[in-house]
Amino acid sequence: MSFFPLKDSFGTTQLILNHADISPDLAILSNVPVESNVLIEGTVLLRPSSAKRPGATGEIDVLVDKFTVLNPADTLPFVPSNPHNLPNDDLRARYRYLDLRRSILSDNIKKRSQVAHTIRNLLHDQGFVEVETPVLLRSSPEGAREFLVPTRTSAAEGDGQSADEPLFYALQQSPQQPKQLLICSGGVDRYYQIAKCFRDEDGRKDRQPEFTQVDMEMAFVSWGENASGTPGSDAWRIGGTEIRDVVEKLIQTVWRNIEGIELPEHFKVMTYHEAMTRFGSDKPDTRFGLEIINLTDLLPRDTQVVSDPEQEILECIVVRKSSDSEFIRASRACESTASTEHISLKDGNTRSWLLQSNVARHVYPYLNEEDLSTVNTALKIKSGDDIWLAHRPRSPKGGSSALGRTRLSVFELAQARGEFTVTRDPHFLWITEFPLFTRDDADKEFLAHGRWSSSHHPFTAPVWQDVEVMYRGEVQSVRGQHYDLVLNGVEIGGGSVRVHDAHMQDYIFTSILQLNEQEKSPFHQLLHALRCGAPPHGGIALGFDRLMAMLCNTQSIRDVIAFPKTRMGADLLFKSPAAVSSEVLYQYGIQPRSSSS
Amino acid sequence: MSFFPLKDSFGTTQLILNHADISPDLAILSNVPVESNVLIEGTVLLRPSSAKRPGATGEIDVLVDKFTVLNPADTLPFVPSNPHNLPNDDLRARYRYLDLRRSILSDNIKKRSQVAHTIRNLLHDQGFVEVETPVLLRSSPEGAREFLVPTRTSAAEGDGQSADEPLFYALQQSPQQPKQLLICSGGVDRYYQIAKCFRDEDGRKDRQPEFTQVDMEMAFVSWGENASGTPGSDAWRIGGTEIRDVVEKLIQTVWRNIEGIELPEHFKVMTYHEAMTRFGSDKPDTRFGLEIINLTDLLPRDTQVVSDPEQEILECIVVRKSSDSEFIRASRACESTASTEHISLKDGNTRSWLLQSNVARHVYPYLNEEDLSTVNTALKIKSGDDIWLAHRPRSPKGGSSALGRTRLSVFELAQARGEFTVTRDPHFLWITEFPLFTRDDADKEFLAHGRWSSSHHPFTAPVWQDVEVMYRGEVQSVRGQHYDLVLNGVEIGGGSVRVHDAHMQDYIFTSILQLNEQEKSPFHQLLHALRCGAPPHGGIALGFDRLMAMLCNTQSIRDVIAFPKTRMGADLLFKSPAAVSSEVLYQYGIQPRSSSS
To answer: In the UniProt record, does the keyword Zinc occur (chains A, B) (predicted)?
Structure first.
């Protein structure tokens, strides 16, 4: 007898050739090249229960009577069935159709389909209408990262364009305006779309020039019962509770159907302020401790000499030898950065470490024994503990603080060293009440030129308690009705309640963001739609590729996309992007730019 | 009492204000501008059963206790709730968010969502995996109608491009190659996607630059039981029966769930040859008669003098005063064209009309009495009948013949005159066995330069009986395993069994289409994938916009798209396409072409 593995989309089945009674024709099955496409006819045999293997085809063998080679395989650039001898990423990307023969990849693709199906059914049952919005939209001055699409058709009707001037669409970066206009129409109260979006940016991190969002928008969103909750009380104190409920149902259903995991009825809620002060991150990973402690709160106000508002708060992380034993060696092995100080407590400095800290001394030059004692008692530190120190501004800014980054470094190193095993339970968390405007986003400064920018987008409504604050011009203090959904320290979605008052929207464009007429022009139709009696509304977009990467337990979204591009946006299979001849470009009214310009 | 209509996404509800006991605050509800967004609190009253209206809100009134204006409407460019005073298409397109308040449009959008949901569930249940394929693909020399997308990212890795040369993606015109490569991978046996596709062409007919396809591909497609059926026997004699079965199930389920109509288990099948000879169209409308009759078959061969192979067959349509009474007046009112002759039979010419026909005399100058008699007897003509005459080549070519177009003209005129009412039963029909290659497609001649072109695309397999014919070089005689799905004379989808033999595929590229190396380069990855043991496969794409337009009983696909573009590709709402500044274009390595070039 001889045995052959037969792989199909259901799994691998063992073929049995009984040499005692087979014809010479059948014997040559062993000559068929590996990875060929073969039709097998034979008898299905049940494997003895002791020999059952996992998987859909694990219970059977097939005794071969006859085979037909449907399509023989030529010499292959690599053999995907051999996981121990895989070539490098680029070669596999070039022959993606072979790489996709590996079950680990094709299983991801199938899981993606299952999750999309689950999401669509849930949203359909919740009364959402699936609507396709235009992929070909208008270029906007904001479009620092947009793709342009030249067109050969003549100028837009009645738009006063010269027919000789080249005209462009822009690919949607998100369906933000179309979906808001759809809800403004009142014809659809609940919209969703699993939408392809596009961004022309270099491959920082794990991004793709085309990516997929689960995009939603709802009319008549409202406050929930906890609108008056106090900070730190795990309360959703903003509008959009209907969005929260639907997204939680959606995520719960996906985890139940796909992972067999029952999630809590509600996910925890944390304000941006709390997330930044406790975890130093606007997307905190709450699967482990190492929380940040505010030392300024422990110290008398008059001992502080603050010259720089960026250094108003002194904070620390204590990694304890006793209770943080999984992290203590990683912490000791981590190096301090320009903005952090790392002090290992030994018998000699356990009492006086704060006096010796450069970071602390800088703003607390006059600490006395009593202050030291207060801090040490509050921190309950012991010799052998590790302390990390840094400053931050009183109002947290941006997406992470120095100690937030330190916290993650210690965590990651402890994992890499095998000293800490993170829980497999998914930690979902809502972050709310982000600052509505920012001056600290380098990506936005490109367009803001020193003006305020919207932290997310200019359609987000302020929290109601801050509306007057906004009209008084205290721009930095205004919080937005924005919510991010975070899973295990990764942002998997974000949305907001939108401004539905045309006057307020115009005030934000004109008085806060100080947009000129040209900059405001892409928003004219939205402003007008608000003036037509638009309902209050809000929405969210979930990053589907990232969600799938987490469900498939892979680091790279490329593993959950059938035909992904490289980090640099290159498609090695289809060989794009590529040069195009001048004759073809001419038809679109463009040419390569002259090198002199 | 006074009454107000309140419209929401469920329908219109009647509000009742009881002036006897309402406060002055409430009375001012009548001052709220029309189309404002209002929150109503009150008591739901059941209407008397005699006063029930159709629709979701037709059984109730609401007695108003309190109202809150959530968002007042300003002066509107038009009032969508007044169907008798709608402005022109362009103004409504510009304010599409107002136009979508008309239920007739928002109902279409909701129906589209329902149909998509039905299709997805059916395909999911049939074991199809939904896979997203790249929208950003590579430009191809074939891409006469493709959109280019310049990118700012540096040159594709390792592709030998100069970094200064502008690089482009192209938007997918269909996911043809990605879906075939996916099936070639073997990881997925059944693929589907409701895919956005793009074509940069002028607005001939009812086309959009972005449109939606229900796209499918299946591995291991095969012949059915009727593979040896005879022509004209309503038999599917090609491969891909699994595609046929799934599409019929899908269409049946949509018509059952959405329209409440039970369709036959199998749709009729007709070869291209039969469709062209009986109906003069490759997408015949079989809801009415007026079939074409071949006169050459009735006449003795030796009476024919053929100088032009395009005129080998003489054919006619007889519109009978008796049995075609709905059409006879329309027929008499239709004018003949350059390629048709129109003869009205009167007492004087009922016997001799064929002798007097210019079209007939041209190739039959020597007819005798017996020939006339044979024809007249066979046609059973009578005085008062109308006859249309034309020539065609022996092997039908293209999508329609002169008499096929005449047949439709008479039908349309009879409908417009109110003399014929077409059945409401949908007539589904498969057309199969198209010629695989053509030299008569003006659109393709642009690239073919006198060479053969593929009638559909170069991946379609020949019917098995014609494989030898193809290798013998009798290109014009080769039929393809192609199938179109036709509904009421409109093509709503098409597909084929693909070539899976790399040698045959290369023969088609090289020996038949005579592509040079550069022209073949976009197909390299597919050719290689076939060489890696690809399974036999086939697929289809259904035009989702067109299908929806037919389900919504509208002439224009713009009525089933939330934010459509005009025929010229202009988006009057978002004002695209639009000019882009030279500074921005510079970043993409392009500039407007100089007027001198």
So the answer is: no
User: What would the DSSP string read from start to end of A232-246?
Assistant: TSS---SS-HHHHHH
Q: What angle do CA B429, B561, B8 make, to 5 degrees?
A: 120
User: Residue by residue, what is the 3-state secondary structure of A564-578?
Assistant: CCCCCCCECCCCECE
Residue A196 is inside which H or E element, if any? strand A190-198
Tens of pLDDT, residue by residue over A39-96, are 999 999 999 888 888 888 889 999 999 999 999 999 999 999 887 888 999 999 999 9
Residue A52 DSSP code? -
SS3 of B238-275: the string is CCCHHHHHHHHHHHHHHHHHHHCCCCCCCCEEEEHHHH
Q: Give the mean pLDDT of chain A.
A: 91
Q: Which two tokens stand for residue B595?
A: 């007027």
Task: List the structure tokens of A239.
Answer: 């509008």
Q: What is d(CA B392, CA A542) in angstroms, rounded to the nearest whole number?
A: 58
One-letter identity of residue A171: L
Residue that has been written with the tokens 């033999």 in this structure? B501
Residue A317, amino acid: I
* Contact residues, chain A, for B505 at CB < 8 Å: none
Which secondary-structure segment (H or E) carries B97?
helix B96-99
Q: Are strands A148-151 and A292-294 parallel, antiparallel or unpaired?
A: unpaired
- Could you tell me the domains of chain B? 2-75 (2.40.50.140), 136-171+573-597 (no CATH), 288-416 (3.30.1360)
Q: What are phi and psi of A524, to 5 degrees?
A: -55, -45
Specify the DSSP class assigned to residue A54. S
Q: By the 8 A CB rule, do A315 and A388 touch?
A: no
DSSP A21: G
The full DSSP string for B495-558 is EEEBP--HHHHHHIIIIIS---HHHHGGGHHHHHHHHBTPPPEEEEEEEHHHHHHHHTT-S-GG
Query: What is d(CA A568, CA A576) in angstroms, rounded to the nearest whole number?
Result: 11
Cα A151 from Cα A139, distance rounded (Å)? 13
Residues in chain A: 597
Q: Which one of B147, B562, B565 has the shortest CB-CB distance to A132?
A: B562
The Cα A231–Cα A236 span in angstroms is: 9
What tokens does A474 get?
A: 């205290």
Considering only CB atoms, which chain B residues are within 8 Å of A575? 138, 156, 159
3-state secondary structure A119-137: HHHHHHHCCCEECCCCCEE
Mutate which of B148, B172, B558 to disrupt the A interface (most A C-beta within 10 Å)?
B148
The DSSP string of B337-352 is: -TT-EEEE--TTTTTT
Question: What's the CA angle centered on B316, arms B313 and B319, to 5 degrees?
Answer: 170
Band of the pLDDT at A156, cuts 50, 70, 90? very low
Rg from Cα positions in chain B: 30
Half-sphere exposure of A21 (CA within 13 A, CB side): 4
Cα–Cα distance, A299 to A377 (Å, whole number): 12
Is the CB of residue B361 less than 8 Å from the CB of residue B245? no
Residue B103, SS3 per DSSP: helix
Amino acid identity for residue B100 in this structure: L
Q: Which of B44, B451, B508, B562 is nearest to A137 (CA)?
A: B562
Q: How far is CA B288 from CA B156, B285, B291, B363, in A?
A: 56, 7, 9, 30
Amino acid at A199: R
Angle at B221 between CA B219 and CA B223, to 5 degrees: 170
Q: How far is B451 from chain A (nearest CA, A)?
A: 21
Q: Which of A113, A204, A527 to mutate to test the interface with B (most CBs of B within 10 A)?
A: A113
List, for chain B, all residue ranges whose pLDDT scores fall below the cut of 70.
22, 141-144, 154-163, 202-205, 225-232, 595-597
Which pLDDT score is estimated for B159? 47
